[in-house]
Fold this sequence. Notes:
Structural class: alpha+beta
Amino acid sequence: MKLNSKKLMLVLALAAVVVVAGGCSFLQRNDTVQPSPGLNGSKSTIASETDNYLADIPTEQTDIVLIGSELEGLYLARAAADEGLKVKILDPRSAFGGQVLQGEMLFLDETRDDRKRLLVQGRAKELFSGFRNGKIRKLKEFEQYFDKLKQDIPVEHGIRIESVEQKPGQFGGQAVNGVVYTTRDGQKKRIAADYWVENTDHAAMVSQLQATRMPGLEKFYGQKDIEYMSSGMMMKFKNVDWAKFQQSFNNTSKKERRAKYGWGSVNESFAISLIGMTNKYKAVSDRVLLRGLNAVNQRDGEVIINALLIYTVDPSDDQSVADALEIGKKETPLILDHFRKSLPGWEKVELNGFPNYLYIREYNHYETDYVLKPSDMLGAKMFWDNVSIGGYPLDLQGTSATKWGIEMGRPDKYGMPLRSFLLKNYDNVIMAGKNVGASAIAYGSARIQPNTSLAAESIGVILGQIKGKKQLRELKEADVTQLHQYLAEKYNIKLTGVTGNNKLEGWSADEIAQLDAGKIVYPVYVETRQK
């Protein structure tokens, strides 16, 4: 739709007033906006013209809008749709599936407790079981799984958010009322919903709200500028003789294996670390590091590896992502040559193409109603409003300042509350996947897919159950107790009666505060403390 010159001038003038008055780049339809001195017309005229402009845009009403198509949020969409809600997915990226389908991050990390018991629950269990037993390894098999998640849920790709309409919230703060966006073919549309789910890897919607960014790894690593965990470029190979690789590795004496490969293991499915071999590779770009391998045998001589780290990538900047992809494409053939010379069974290996996108580990952390801390995880804390039971080391991948990163401790298991997925000061904005409310250090564990996938599914079910009765922010402990029972009975999701190993027993309040601030590195400190 084309705007006539009068409407365009009024819209631009109003936008300028909003920026001057509030420092914001979005339209707030319910706000009173003062006209600028040079603007002809009264406040009521401006509001009327703006409302008329929005009224000209086709508007859709739905229960839930999911912004982005990352795996974790899709569990919320699927669960809510199965519970009878109307869901729509708006994806700012040009193709579906985010880090899994486009970045081809097809090496899945399971979550297990100290006794190696699987913590994966809900619908994600099918994916992780399929990956472990070899049935879901190739891209096509992942695509088929994603197709089941999004079945009968409408998706629009390549959209651009033009404005986010806000109104005063019922519980204080704000609520999102609607979004105006441009489709891939240039058409302007408007959509309104009860709930909005941020499910991108670059906070496509929330970055346009009055959300508070929390300190990131730059504070922990002592860097002046904002920088995120390294991104990954998945390396795809074919013509690998995996049986020869496995047999040769395991038939080598322990002493020889250590000398040649360093620490590591190879079985019929996975090759892990081999850090002595990867350390011998010298990268061409100073923005690249080849770390230890996370390699998966995809069958038929195909192997995909998560090991190539690329630093200083800004996920919100398309050019930054594109530049990093080019760096990875130049480095991967050189790594292939290194593998040919270093690994038995890899003598005839060839490239099997490149992914379309990166594995983005991190972007900004925005404040939620409850922000998870390292002490919550290492202390095995459970919450009355649990929506997930999490686990996994506090694994901080490196930045350009500290390329190898650091592990800050290994929790047994811990709860993840609903409040850590509700954007602070917003009634109806849910943070999915990598957007979970966690400190930069706690994020090292919280970010792992089974943790936030279960949370998203639980929240989707809850939204279906409370529709027409209550809002998320009205839920009390008695309500959540009933919802936990429903999740257990219908979906076999257990969120209560779980206890973990509290690894902070006997710690002082000061010690815990230092741990949460990153001044105590748990694995090192606990050894000293015990002495």
